[in-house]
Amino acid sequence: MSKQSVFPKTIYVVQHVAFEDLGSLEDLFYQLGYRVRYFEAGVDALEPAFLHAGLTIILGGPIGVYETEEYPFLQIEIDLLKQRLASDLPTIGICLGAQMIAYALNAKVYAGPQKEIGWSTLLLNETEDNPLAPLANTPVLHWHGHTFDLPAGATLLASSTLYKNQAFSLGKNILALQFHLEVAGDSFEPWLVGHTCELKQAKLSINQLRADHEQYADELEQQCALVLQNFLNGLEQTVNK
Question: Which of 22, 86, 145, 209 is least crowded, fewest Cβ atoms below 10 Å from its Cβ?
Fold first, then answer.
């Protein structure tokens, strides 16, 4: 039984800022025969995305999961996400999305020791069938200042020198990634524009980030495709049991 016959043909995506989209993942899904539908958090009704029987992806953003008074839609997302995770529906969270998954699983989310912005390799956990194995020697993009405790029952997949909990899975269907594996080689400039205040406050070199992206993004795109295939293969295994 193929993935295309098992899973709905549309990937639902919850987006928090316009320039943080699916990146290279979008083309990969199209190549595999899927469609992509975006939901804009704070604007669109999110129930269809979180009740979707197929794969839902929650993307990043510059706000924190605990800022529900300032951004009430976050509480709606978290409540819907709790239901989704309890049903073990296929879910990927990236950056803010990963923090939301941890928070919905009753793990603590909090500010880290310092911002982690830039390209570096991961420290992969030697767990069986780690879907992130293709990233063993590939620099990925980090862009966050928050972290989370590992939720109960979750498997730690990756760490960095600054943040222990960079990625975890819960069973085969739930994947949380603190880092950005989705950033595409041809769409990084909007990140630099959108985050210019943060970058200048942190006294980081925009030119250096751009140069690192030019050096590493193409390789990341190639390995990202293998990570996605590993995850989809795991979904197929849970359905075929």
Answer: 86
